Amino acid sequence: MPTAARLRRALPRITARRAVAAAAVTALLAGLVTWAAWPDRSTVTGADARLTVRSGPSGTEPVDLDTRFYLPRGASAARPVPAVLLAHGFGGTKDSVRSDAENLANRGYAVLTWTARGFGRSGGQIHLDSPDYEVRDASRLLDWLAARPEVRRDAAGDPRVGVVGGSYGGALALLLAAQDPRVDAIVPMITWNDLARSFLPESAGRPVTDGVFKKGWAGVFFGGDSGVTAGGPAGAGAAGGPPGAAATADPSCGRFAQDVCQAYLKLATTGRADPAAVALLRRSSPAPVLGRIKAPTLLVQGEADTLFPLSEADANARGIAAAGTPVRVAWYTGGHDGGAGPQNDQDRVNYLTAQWLDHYVKGTGATPGTGFTWSRLAGFDALDRGLVATGYSTDRYPGLTGSASRPVGLAGPAQRIANPPGGNPAAISALPGLGGLSSAAGAAGGLGGALSGTDLPGQHARFESAPLAEAVDVAGEPTVSIRAASPTGEAVLFVKLYDVDPKGVATLPEGLVAPVRLTGLPTDLAAARPVTVTLPAIVRRIEAGHRLRIAVATSDQAYATPAQPAVYAVALGGDAVTLPTLSGTPIATPAVVWRWVLAALVAALLLGLAGTVLFLRLRSRRRADSVHPEYASVPLVVRGLRKEYADGFVAVSRVDFEVHPGQVVGLLGPNGAGKTTTLRVLMGLTRPTAGELYVFGHRLVPGSPVLSRIGALVEGPGFLPHLSGVENLRAYWRATGRPLADAHLDEALRIAGLGDSVRRRVRTYSHGMRQRLAIAQAMLGLPEVLVLDEPTDGLDPPQIAEMRRVLQRYATGGRAVLVSSHLLAEVEQTCTHAVVVNKGRVVASGPVADIVGDSPSVRFDVSDPAAARAVLDRMAGVRVLPDGDGALVVDTNGTARSEVVAELVRAGVGVDRVVPRRRLEDAFLALVGENSRGSGDR
């Protein structure tokens, strides 16, 4: 069997390519114009036609293109509209972008879609966006648009038009704008700058002819459409030519042009590019012609893209901007390996695209500007559990170096690694169209988990950092320096940056690797010179406590590697990896702006309601901003508090008390007495029906700024289970918007007493551990007022004793503590003051000692407790109390103690000591009654 035929048998079929490459492009474009909330498809008309255009080097070669033209309602010669030329991705057809075209038409554009030559029902062969073929085809389509009476023209033969496309279509948009000055604006997405560099990347600055062949993606991109695509032109031969061509066409090339196919076959066979192959790929690249582009350009590039990474858009942006053309760059969380990304990220890209086209093509709206936007996966939506991305913006595009850099130290000895014979077995970093295995697993497992071990033992070296003291937001291309030695003088290596969590699980962001081909290497590592490796650009937050790992591998399934086995020596060339960092302003997900269109009556009602709410808030804020002079130095004052619910239930009828500096005040009462409702009102979680609360003289209302002076644990702790204890505390404090230095985090952690457990995920905590972490959270920032609801719940006796000492120490230096608890013995030992609530009212308040007062219960130390109990049981009104801790505790109930002693002595029972017993529990029961129940506190 001929070599070409054998190779063709091994290549992916068209269906496999469509499942990966075209799927990503179609997914992005499917979300591109779906910003119309409820599009009325009946307002759009679409007409199919087979157009014959003349292109080729001479401009005279005919080719039939399968097209569809969409017009919005009302477009006519009397009312012409601007146009959009909408290109599909590699392997797609005009039907791939149908929904996008309909939605663009609903926005008021005439839209022309077509199936590129060599695909679907169009004729011709695939030339990879050749300026002579595919680009000239598109230029002829502009001629066709200019002749349509419904399309607005800037001049005779010059339609008002924007060009939009992703991947294959994105490169076409760039090349067409460089070749045809009639293009008014372009939106290229997830596309390339230099097709040669894309398929022959080299991360150490060497020429593209030394690049490492990206065989995985090349096989999908080139080999997947070698055969006739389904639904080809009727009567066409195997190469998409005229009838009868099948007998002479090379079956290994299918509908690819011969020069393109032969260049690919040579690359796939040798793994190296010659100057002719590089020149052919460069012919289909925007890189050489960027300076000719005058159409304002919005470049959208995916962060999850092992085919065309962020560096491709960066090169396009720099080349176009150098000519003075307006350029805007947007990164999003999808790409060839990530699809269209989360819905809210699609919404952001859609908004930017609509804004760009409307201004530069339609001529409406303000200038979009050239600010930079990007996004990062943030978590899961609480409603549908779909991924959510957080968007950010800056005034200027920083490139791939970020706005600042952060060196992170690395350590590790020199290591020997083996290149396997024939490149097999090989490490797996990414699969075409599926991205990085570790990144995919990480997203599925909560953004943090990942598969590890994709590097094979003996075939890679590792160098690691210490755990990070704080989180780092990476955005751009990290760099690292390595040294290598080889017995052959040459080595192909793959350098990777892993994010390693505290459990040792490693994530390779998006499966991105930096291939390098090193030549002129010494055989002795001591003589090797450092080589700087530029790693692929990533957008990732490396959390505190995580480590960075640089892996240097000899094999990767996605790339061609030397077949000859060899053993290399590898070491660090420097002591750090440099991370580009970037900070920006968080942006809300752009809403679908026209969903606000409501009936006039509904709008009026909403405006009226908003005005009422605004008036009430302003009035409340004015009252909250004023300071009551009498209470200015008092941490907490509650006056006339009442809470009645809509159904008439009264949870709190009237509560008054004060908490002064240095006091630890216990809020006591039976279940349903109104304690929790009081605390909820205090924390702004519910509004009182009547009454007022003051914190240092400031009136307390929901959302009041003075709430920042209160730390609270009310209704139990709530933490993110997949984060560690310390990460939860940091996240909570970040949400307050205050500097981390003000959190007094170390002091709070000492209070929690969790030891090394603070670095474990909270999902592994016991109830008591969660409770201690919640108390530490309440104490973050050392607030002047601390409010705790059942703080000792879940703690063991030693921990309860420690908590008692902590609260007493805390209420010093002008601070105050309010504690709600059912453990009366603990309140008696901990609190200086107490407030007893029953049935929604305060029944006693003041120092604990005053509330306890003289107790009717007496402790008797006797010689014979059993005989004494029998004597006392016979005395009227006298009762032996349970739970006397081994002693005889008696409620004399008004009977003189001397009479009780005399009765015991007459019965022959010796009485050693009589001690009055004063307990808060006795006073509490006397105040509320043993069987008292509250009002049913909610």
Automatic annotation (TrEMBL):
The chain crosses the membrane at residues 593-616. It comes from the Bacteria. Residues 636-864 form the ABC transporter domain. One of its GO terms (molecular function) is hydrolase activity. Signal peptide: none annotated. Pfam families: ABC_tran, Peptidase_S15, PepX_C. Keywords: ATP-binding, Hydrolase, Membrane, Nucleotide-binding, Transmembrane, Transmembrane helix, Transport. InterPro entries: AAA+_ATPase, AB_hydrolase_fold, ABC_transporter-like_ATP-bd, ABC_transporter-like_CS, Galactose-bd-like_sf, P-loop_NTPase, Xaa-Pro-like_dom, Xaa-Pro_dipept_C. The keyword Transcription does not apply. Belongs to the ABC transporter superfamily. This is Alpha/beta fold hydrolase.
